Amino acid sequence: MRPRKPGTVLIAGAGLAGARCAETLRAGGFEGRVILVGEEREVPYERPALSKEVLAGEREASALALRPPGFWDEAGIELVLRVRVERVRIAQRLAETSDGRILAWDSLVAATGARARRLASAGATPAGVRYLRTLEDAVTLRRELVPGARLAVVGSGFIGAEVASSARARGVDVALIGRGIAPFERILGGEVGRLLAERYRAHGVEVRLGVGVAGFHSRADGHVRAIVLDDGAEIACDAALVGVGTTLATEPLAGDGLTATDGSLPTDPCGRTGVPGVFACGDIASAWRPSLGLRLRFEHWTSAAGQAACVARTILGEECPYDDPPYFWSDQFGLRLQHVGFAESWARAEIEGEGNSFLVRYLDGDGRLLAGLAANRPREAAALRRELAAREALAA
Ligand SMILES: Cc1cc2nc3c(=O)[nH]c(=O)nc-3n(C[C@H](O)[C@H](O)[C@H](O)COP(=O)(O)OP(=O)(O)OC[C@H]3O[C@@H](n4cnc5c(N)ncnc54)[C@H](O)[C@@H]3O)c2cc1C
């Protein structure tokens, strides 16, 4: 029988990682208290749908819950919503919350994720300039997406591209502004980035690359009316969405010596931080990946879920390293993009297919697969995953 550690597990952050950790603890027979504290008002929900189905009007915001109503009570998980973990006192094993509670814990799981990075360089942002991280953000932005409205999207990363795609599907005029010379150039390479930019243009998006935002112009009522680019051009708009990355929500643990210089919480492959009894998983964790020989932080659904399950099993007494090949997907302009593996650089990228269906293999100098991208090719994506998993298992 697996040893069962009693006591209280306090999970800070009721997003995907927090929720998955809590339910895996119960599924694994954990008999102590599980307290899941989240600052949002919704029960844990599917964040990826926000920029896709929710904005495109294909899915109601109320249909995103990760688990059916009653699940958390039935599982004996104390779900505390609209409450922040304000401060953690590591030495005393206590946490202070925004509603004045002091919670004692035996194990603490930091799963507070990330927030949308604010656009600092452009001064004060007028009304109508939106960010997208939460369900509330998505509902607010969706109101702006009426046919014929003009949306300026700042940032040509995943959030920007997906919002642009959903907005076009609703008949919104979209301008997409990106600093890089091609979208996703760093992760997917210039050639694939240019393919994607062409696709956005073919879907009626005005794509402006290699430029940043210098500021905004507002109407008399204070609402945004144009974005000023740093090349002097102006883009008229009725609303703007800024998707320029994230900042990490590690405030409750700041000052405890747990955070790295990039603000993340470094962990071992099982999610343990350097402090006994303190774990981290999801977007805030930078975990050691044995097969890659690297410490990496991902902001992707699959690694958040996988790490969280491993943290739970580790608390249950198993040694459960998470070392699956990195994986993410993105839905944009009729493409399901699935990316597997990790490559900071590659010797060559082999592209097969075009338009609505293509496959890219990123290879090292010896022709070995480092990463792959499948566009509307789910079977090949699965094969890439298997190929990389087999290689990584060998390497580990
Ligand atoms: C719009 C959008 C679309 C996405 N699409 C994809 C996709 O297509 N594919 C993919 O692989 N990934 C996608 N992702 C990324 C994926 O959703 C994240 O990687 C995943 O949600 C990370 O889970 P998490 O639990 O670590 O963080 P989060 O989901 O951010 O959850 C953290 C929770 O903790 C709360 N919190 C923060 N601080 C505190 C505190 N002090 N006290 C209490 N609660 C706190 C936050 O409010 C939040 O509810 C998308 C993300 C967004 C925002």
Summarize, please.
The protein is 23% helix and 30% strand. Flavin-adenine dinucleotide binds next to helix 1, helix 8 and strand 22.
Task: Outline the structure in words.
- 23% of the residues lie in helices and 30% in strands.
- It has 396 residues and is α/β, with parallel strands linked by helices.
- The protein folds into three domains: 8-115 and 247-315, FAD/NAD(P)-binding domain (3-Layer(bba) Sandwich); 118-244, FAD/NAD(P)-binding domain, CATH 3.50.50.60; 334-395, FAD/NAD-linked reductase, C-terminal dimerisation domain (Enolase-like, domain 1, 2-Layer Sandwich).
- The strands form seven sheets. The chain has a five-stranded parallel sheet. It has a five-stranded parallel sheet with strand order 9-16-10-11-12, with helices on one face. Strands 22-23-26-25-24 form a five-stranded antiparallel sheet.
- A hairpin with a 5-residue loop joins strand 25 (357-363) and strand 26.
- The longest helix is centred in the last third of the chain and has 18 residues, at 378-395.
- The structure holds flavin-adenine dinucleotide.
- Flavin-adenine dinucleotide binds at residues 12-18, 37-40, 47-48, 50-51, 84-85, 111-114, 132-133, 159, 249, 252, 282-283, 299-302, 304, 328-330.
Describe the secondary-structure layout.
Blueprint: E1 8-12, H1 16-27, E2 33-37, H2 53-56, H3 71-74, E3 77-80, E4 85-89, E5 94-97, E6 102-104, E7 107-110, E8 114-116, E9 129-130, H4 135-144, E10 150-154, H5 158-169, E11 173-178, H6 185-188, H7 190-202, E12 206-209, E13 213-218, E14 224-229, E15 234-236, E16 239-242, E17 246-248, E18 265-267, E19 278-280, E20 285-289, E21 294-296, H8 301-315, E22 327-332, E23 335-341, E24 348-354, E25 357-363, E26 369-375, H9 378-395
Parallel strand pairs: 1-2, 1-7, 2-3, 7-19, 9-16, 10-11, 10-16, 11-12, 18-20
Antiparallel strand pairs: 4-5, 5-6, 8-17, 13-14, 14-15, 20-21, 22-23, 23-26, 24-25, 25-26
The structure holds flavin-adenine dinucleotide.
